[in-house]
Fold this protein.
Amino acid sequence: MSFFGASSSSMGTSVQTGTAAELQNDRDITSPPEDSISDICFSPQADFLAVSSWDKKVRIYEVAGNGDSQGKALYEHQGPVLSVHWSNDGTKVVSGGSDKAGRLFDVQTGQSSQIAAHDATIRAVRFVDGGNSNQQIVATGSWDKTLKYWDLRQQTPVLSVQLPERVYTMDVKQKLLVVGTAERHICIFNLDNPGQIFKTTQSQLKFQTRVVSCYPTANGYAFGSIEGRCAIQYVDEQEQQKLGFSFKCHRDVATTGPRSESNVYSVNAISFHPEHGTFSTAGSDGTFHFWDKDSKHRLKGYTNVGGTISSTAFNRNGSLFAYAISYDWSKGYQFNRADYPNTIKFHATKDEEVKPRPKKR
């Protein structure tokens, strides 16, 4: 197993560390949510950002190329909203939360309706390919240990799959759907056969899975844990043996007297650039970094932005990177101060941050 980021020497001398001055032009979102931000997602068709929050609301913002934003729509759940996702055509938003309900918002009509239900909190929602029907299906993963698929034209799920544990994270790309559950299970689905788990593995990372994100090429996925580690995985076993690895990230060293101690933070978000295939990680240490998995190289990293980062997203062409500075509950309710920052910032990406390194001959 190879690592990059394990030490400064393994990163090479060309690693760039961003400064606070470089983030001064990052724009704050207009009228942010009133409570912690749980998830953010850009439309694949236009620069609209959907934002879910613990204040029981989903907000949709229009974002200009320079990061200026304005609110366009809002709808509500009956409890904190934990996940949000856009349809491929950009006309609908789906969300799920602690009210055990999945809701659909139609951008054109401005109406929301309940389209899914579980016996416990819905932790993750995704639109998935409906196959031959040309109808988009919604997948919902819950703490009731099930994954359900919903056809928007009917009230009951078209499929329900029993999972080994509670759903903590989920992502989809093309025909690849990956679910991370409690007890470090990773369930992989081929959406040509959505009712059957294609493969179940247990994370090689020793601590709880926090986030999973599928590659744009849909041949693998990255996932992060609460222990400051990220793993690069491939579905094909031969590819995995050749290219898979894990690495340390989102850690710092604190010196107290003669002793040095390593502080380890949760990896809360992993986002892949839609065009270049590079990716970002962000965590409870309040930093975000851009990586090139193929060259095992960190492209650029930024220092603490003033609060934990709970969620991130690239826009449709990767020219904007959004990061939510918001309490992530990693230290319990006692640390959620009234003056804790709660905003989303928009960072205009540069080539050296997101373009992969030239391959060595």
